[in-house]
Amino acid sequence: MKTHLHGLLLYCRPGFERECAQEIADRCGEAGHLVEVSAEPNSGWVEAQAEGGTLWALTRILRWQDLCFARQLLFSGRTVEGMAPGDRVTPLVEAARELCDGYADFLVETPDTDDAKSLSSMIKKLEPHLSQALEEAGAFSDAPDAPRLHILFTATDRATVALSWPGRRSEWLNGIPRLRMPREAPSRSTLKLAEAFHTLLSEDEQERLLKPGMSAVDLGAAPGGWTWQLVSRHISVTAVDNGRMNPELLESGLVVHKREDGFRFVPRKPVDWLVCDMVEQPRRVAALAARWLTQGLCRHAVFNLKLPMKRRYDELQLCTDLIAEAMGDRKYVLRCRQLYHDREEVTCYLGDPGKAGGGGRKRKR
C-alpha cells in the first residue's frame, strides 16, 4: 500500500499537550525510534516528525490503546493551507490521494477547543461534498485492512490529512466518546466509570469481567456515581464512605454502605472489583490499588490518580513505577488513560493479564 507519511498527529485534552508530547516521545524512544515533537499550548493536538522509514515502522508498533494522554493516534500527511472558501474540496481530495491509495471511510474533525468548535457548521456543509468527491476520485477501498482518512481542521482555510488503522485507534469522532448522562445516576462522576469500562477494557473483557452477580467495593463512594454504574450491571457493591449515599441506591438491595476510612477498609472476603475515586495523593492511591491486588482482596481495580498541576507526566511515571515495585514478580496489566470525563487526573485499570486478556502495558519485574 502506497503511503506518504509526514509525521504523527495526536489529539489530547487542551492544556495537556506537554504531557502528550512527553509520552509519545518516550514510547517512540522505547521502540528504538527518535521523533521530534512539537506542541502548541492549549491547542488540543500534538505533532511528531520523523523520517519516512521510521514512521512506517511506528505504524506497526504504536497503538492508541497503549497511550494515556492521547485521545487519538494518527499518521499525518500534508497540511493544506490557504484554502479558498469556495473550494475546499479539491485541495483536500488531492492531499488525501497523495497520502494513501484507498480508505475504508473518512472523518472530518476539529480539536476540542472553543475556537475550533466554531468550525462545526462549516464542516457539516462540507462533508457531503467531500464524500461525493472522494467517491468520484476512487478514494475508497473495500480491503479489510484499509485505513480511515481523518481531516483535521484547525482553521477555516487550514486542515491536515491523516490516517489511522483498525485496532490501533480510537473509534470515536475526535477521540471523544458520546455517553449520555443517566437520569437516575446520583452524580456525573458515573460517566467516568462508564467511559473507563469502554476504553480500558475490550468488548470481550467487558462481557467476561462485568457479569451480573459479581461483587465490588467502591472506596470514596458518596454520593454513589460509581456505585450506580456497577449496580446498573447488577453487581453487588460495598460502598465505603463517611458521606451520605443516594437513598435509591441503598434501596436497590445491591448496596451495603460502610461509614469507614477507605484506606483502612478490608473486605471480609475477596471481591471481583475495587473501584476508587478518592481525592488523595496519587501515589497513595496507586499503592492502595496494588496492595488490594497483591493481597488477593480483589481481582480487578479501576482507580483515579489526581495529578498535581506541575510535573503531571512525571507523577504518573512515579505511580506506575510504584505499582511495578509493589507487584514484584507477579505478572499484571496496567492501563492508564486520561478520559474525556476526567480533568486533572487519569484513570487506571490494574488486573491479572490472564483474566484481563491482551493489551495494555504488561510488566514483570
UniProtKB/TrEMBL annotation:
Q: Which reaction does it catalyse?
A: cytidine(2498) in 23S rRNA + S-adenosyl-L-methionine = 2'-O-methylcytidine(2498) in 23S rRNA + S-adenosyl-L-homocysteine + H(+)
SUPFAM superfamilies (alphabetical)? S-adenosyl-L-methionine-dependent methyltransferases
| The protein's assembly and partners | Monomer.
Q: Where is the Ribosomal RNA large subunit methyltransferase M THUMP-like domain?
A: 87-164
* Molecular function terms, GO-annotated: S-adenosylmethionine-dependent methyltransferase activity
Organism expressing this protein natively? Methyloversatilis universalis (strain ATCC BAA-1314 / DSM 25237 / JCM 13912 / CCUG 52030 / FAM5)
Domain RlmM ferredoxin-like: residue ranges: 6-74
Q: Where in the cell is it found?
A: Cytoplasm
The reply on keyword rRNA-binding is no
Report the gene name.
rlmM
Query: What is an annotated GO biological process for this record, any one?
Result: methylation
Q: Does the keyword tRNA processing apply?
A: no
EC class name: transferase
Pull one GO CC term from this UniProt entry: cytoplasm
Q: Which residues bind S-adenosyl-L-methionine?
A: 189, 222-225, 241, 261, 277
Q: What is this protein called?
A: Ribosomal RNA large subunit methyltransferase M
Which InterPro entries does this UniProt record tie to the protein?
RlmM_FDX (IPR040739), RlmM_THUMP-like (IPR048646), RNA_MeTrfase_FtsJ_dom (IPR002877), rRNA_MeTrfase_M (IPR011224), SAM-dependent_MTases_sf (IPR029063)
Tell me where on the tree of life, at the top rank, the source sits.
Answer: Bacteria
- Catalytic residues? 306 (proton acceptor)
Give the family, as the similarity comment puts it: Belongs to the class I-like SAM-binding methyltransferase superfamily. RNA methyltransferase RlmE family. RlmM subfamily.
Tell me, in a sentence or two, what this protein's role is: Catalyzes the 2'-O-methylation at nucleotide C2498 in 23S rRNA.
> What is the phylogenetic placement of the source species in the record?
Bacteria, Pseudomonadati, Pseudomonadota, Betaproteobacteria, Nitrosomonadales
Question: What positions does the domain Ribosomal RNA methyltransferase FtsJ occupy?
Answer: 187-280
The record's EC number reads 2.1.1.186
State the UniProt keywords alphabetically: Cytoplasm, Methyltransferase, rRNA processing, S-adenosyl-L-methionine, Transferase
